[in-house]
Design brief:
The protein has helices spanning about 30-40, 50-70, 75-90, 105-125, 135-140, 145-185, 205-225, 250-260, 270-275, 280-305, 335-355, 370-390, 400-410, 415-420, 425-435, 440-445; strands at about 10-15, 20-25, 190-195, 195-200, 230, 265, 315, 360, 365, 400. With about 450 residues, the protein is mainly alpha-helical. The protein folds into 3 domains: about 10-145, Fumarase C, Chain B, domain 1, CATH 1.10.275.10; about 150-230 and about 275-400, Fumarase C, Chain A, domain 2, CATH 1.20.200; about 415-445. Strand 1 and strand 2 (about 20-25) form a beta hairpin.
Length: about 450
Amino acid sequence: MYSLMPMKPPNRLEKDALGKVKVPLDAYFGAFTCRAKENFQISGDKAPKMLNHALGLVKLCAAETNLELGLIDKKYKNALLQACAEFMEGKFLSQFVIDIFQAGAGTSYNMNANEIIANRANELLKAPKGSYKYLHPNNHVNLGQSTNDVIPTTLRIAALLSLPELTAQLKGLIKSIEELAKKHAQTLKVGRTHLQDAVPISVKQEFDSYKEALQNSQKQIELSAEDLKTLGIGGTAVGTGQNAHKDYHKLMLEKLSAKTKIHFKSAKNFTETANNMNVFMNFSGGLRSLATNLLNFCSDLSLLNMGPKAGLSEISLPEMQAGSSIMPGKVNPSIPEAVQMVAMQVLGNDQIISLACQRSNLELNVFCPLIMNNLLQSMKILTNGLKTLTQKCVKGLKINKERITELLENSLATATKLAEELGYDLTAEIVHSALKNNRTLKEELKRRKIKY
């Protein structure tokens, strides 16, 4: 009998500074990527799509700049620009294969992109992959660049390009809360402190507080995003600018600004932008603020929805799915629960980003891949979480006026106002008597023949 063994895919042989490397024959990546792919088999998680797009954008602008400066032969222009554009558009996502946990600074991401673009450009020029006959990953695609300036620049761009959708979804949630508050401006309910009855408050006042908190987070995010617009591209290795043309930085700022419609500014110190990652920590701080407010808001929605018969039941959330595999008819606050999980993940990501930013040793912070993955994941899940919360929860939320009124009338929440006329001590005596004898405040006042 013959056993059918899977055939190994054919390889091509490439050579780098460490020796010969077998590379899959049809692969657009090359020797550097193969070594990194072999070395870092850790999570199986690859770079977010937005990083691929932003990195491709940087490579496209770099190619245009170097062509304009006469540093790359114009006969290769069309092939190089097409290869960069295709990479940016996500055509080679399956070839962008490096694990998010990798050698520091993001060199593997940078070289993975350089090799893909070089091989695609050579293919367009009718040269075989791996030959680098016309265009080389380092000599041409990476010309005037270093991982030290490319990756921090890429992360800034990726975050800024992700921001509009996040902001749009946040504004949508704020608007829905505002509409709900306006609709119930005259509905009074029990306000609570320490989870105990406190004083009357309107539904509008309660939900306006959630709205204001979210608006404050939005302002913090947008303010911290301004610092992401300062770029040190052209600083190359540790901010020295070595191997970059004197006009490279200026042209890169112009081209990146034109293509993204974002006004990028020049960093004052290129070494600082390679070493100091605090702009990402500060931006993540805005996301942390948003996550914290979402955590509180969703927790309150679950509490107010508690019931339906044996709890507060002041609101009713949309019924999205069955809540139990054993209890028929049970419906849980599924959407707020999911968004609370999103918020917790963002808070965890923020802690990781903070730790990574604290490890800027000498002239370089090598933890950019870790910062990048956690920051972009936070933005993505917040964006989707906000959309889900708005569309599948807040827009269908119902205020149960009868239940709210019942709880208010049976509570002692109006006692604080009563103290203005009767004094604290007498009012406290009345409250305790009402509680002890299971009477409402009105009933207790009537029994004592106190008009109010």
